[in-house]
Amino acid sequence: MALKTGQEYIESLRQRNIKVFMFGERVENPVDHPIIRPSINAVAMTYELANQPEYEDLLTATSNLTGKRVNRFTHLHQSTEDLVKKVKMQRLLGQKTGVCFQRCVGMDAFNSIDSVTYEIDQKYGTEYHQRFRKFLAYIQENDLVVDGAMTDPKGDRSLPPSKQADPDLFLRIVEEREDGIVVRGAKVHQTGIVNSHEVLVMPTIAMREEDKDYAVSFAVPTDAKGLFFIYGRQSCDTRSLEEGDIDKGNAKFGGQEALTIFDNVFVPWERVFMCREYDFAGLLVERFAGYHRQSYGGCKVGVGDVLIGATAAVAQFNGVEKASHIKDKLVEMVHLNETLYSCGIACSAEGNRTASGTYLINLLLANVCKLNVTRFPYEIARLAQDIAGGLMVTLPSEKDFRHPELGKYVEKYLQGVAGIPTEDRLRLLRLIENMTLGRAAVGYLTESMHGAGSPQAMRVVIARQANMEKKKELAFELVGIEK
Ligand code: SF4
Ligand code: FE
Questions:
Q1: Is pLDDT of 100 > 80?
Q2: Domain-embedded: residue 366
Q3: How far apart are CA 72 and CA 93, in angstroms?
Q4: How many domains does the chain have?
């Protein structure tokens, strides 16, 4: 089997025996849980669209491992064209869901681990690359969701892993056996983990020799013994437990993050892709972060398209669409959004082949892309709230709107331009609330700030990649300064 349908994906999640906790209780059936299900629906769209002929070119690719058609989310980029298509695919999915669709972290992990394992093997004569490709061929063949896991809790940020008061604050190898390793620790803010079949772990920072037990990369199924998840809260999450769909803003789709705990998890050797090669930890982090910073030049742009559309429609429903300052603000939103997209496309088009044959984005441009993402969605959201007006946060509930006596007052006093149903106006205002303050704001705003690294992490890479000496030389040459 190669490509699963959305429904097959959802059914496959039921086969796992995963351990999820929410509000202090074990969730027996995560697939049908009303708070979790919208996030599963979002991942399912990565399957749905892959099966639609019009999106086949973006959502699927020919595997360099097997020669078969696979979902692009499991593909190793073989050209700059692949890198560009990845960004276009992410924009499309952002447009279709309005949320984080979660499957990219695995794709970004595959591509970074592929090239780094090749380079580790070159230096140390290990066999990680071959192991990893075997694992990936299995993932492609079964069209699975794999969650890339990088971020450790990190405890005291001023201390390296081995100097922390609690040695588990970075995930580490606690035992080495003949048949594999045992790991302990946690990964935080783990996007889409409950909706994944497997988790692919990477170190979180560059390391020195004394931290070598922390330099580890491996994959295990999400129902591996000792692995469990504590579900992350999102603003307004319990609205998903209510009847009706207006107040949810985006009832069908959502994102997901969870605290992921590895409580002495065994990993067989064939699933270990880095084991104490601490000198490669930094390279792996840099490449994974680079790919995920590229990703945001696609997904956040697609979500931005939805927000801009909702804002323009609300302006129309309010009768202000022709006001020049509204037109200006909408243009500003588009300008910001397309600037992000330009960066996503540029770092892809300027990508390069690595030694393993897998293509890597241009790191400088990917970091510029993500640094813009730490700012522009906030400005787009600010403009959306400016145009939408205060009603988006003062609206009565759907229950009041549907109430036999109160409903007619809500209908009458909350209508905008005559002829436009009040309900349509309410739905769009709730969508804007959802995207700028509610559940989807986790993905559109806070994740834009901190996902794939906080702004300072981009500045560090930009400083490293900027080649300032070359720029000085250019100036010296023009004014005749000899060096
Ligand atoms: Fe994909 Fe964007 Fe979500 Fe990251 S934040 S997993 S790139 S949708
Ligand atoms: Fe992310």
A1: yes
A2: yes
A3: 12
A4: 1
**CATH code of the domain containing 343:** 1.20.140.10
Active site residue 117: no
For residue 43, is it within any domain? no
Q: Which ligand is nearest to the CA of 451?
A: 2
The set of residues, in sequence order, having a beta carbon less than 8 Å from that of 463 and lying 6+ positions away, is none
Whole-number Å distance between alpha carbons of 58 and 260: 31
CA-108 nearest atom, ligand 1: 7
Question: Which pLDDT value is given to residue 1?
Answer: 58
Whether ligand 1 lies within 6 angstroms of the CB of 105 is answered as: yes
Q: Is the CB of 102 under 6 A from ligand 1?
A: yes
Ligand number nearest to the C-alpha of 291: 1
Q: Is the pLDDT of residue 6 over 70?
A: yes
Pocket test for ligand 1, best of 101, 234, 435, 444 (most atoms within 8 A of CB): 101
Give the distance (Å) from ligand 1 centre to CA of residue 251. 19
Question: Residue 298 CA: which ligand is closest?
Answer: 1
Continuous segment of H or E residues that includes residue 458: helix 455-465
435 within some domain: yes
Name which residue sits closest to atom 2 of ligand 1, judged by CA. 299
Asked whether the whole model's pTM tops 0.85, one would answer yes
Q: List the residue whose alpha carbon is closest to atom 7 of ligand 1.
A: 295
pLDDT of 182 strictly over 70: yes
Residues contacting 222, CB < 8 A, separation 6+: 16, 18, 147, 193, 194, 196, 197, 198, 199, 229
Quote the domain boundaries for residue 318.
283-474
The whole-angstrom distance between residue 31's C-alpha and the CA centroid of its chain comes to 20
Q: Is the pLDDT at 7 greater than 90, yes or no?
A: yes
pLDDT tens for 345-403 read 999 999 999 999 999 999 999 999 999 999 999 999 999 999 999 999 999 999 999 99
* Residue 299 bears catalytic tag: yes
Specify the pLDDT at position 385.
98
Name the active-site residue from 48, 198, 277, 447: 447
Alpha-carbon distance values, 276 to 179, 198, 202 (Å) = 16, 22, 12
Is-contact 201 216, C-beta < 8 A? Answer: yes
At 207, the pLDDT band (50, 70, 90 cuts) reads very high
Nearest Cα to Cα of residue 194 among 26, 71, 49, 446:
26
C-beta separation of 15 from 8 below 8 A: no
Q: How far is CA 158 from the centre of its chain?
A: 27
Average pLDDT over all residues of the chain: 97
- Residue 146 has phi, psi (to 5 degrees) of -120, 130
Does 350 participate in catalysis according to the annotation?
no
Residue 462 domain-assigned (yes or no) = yes
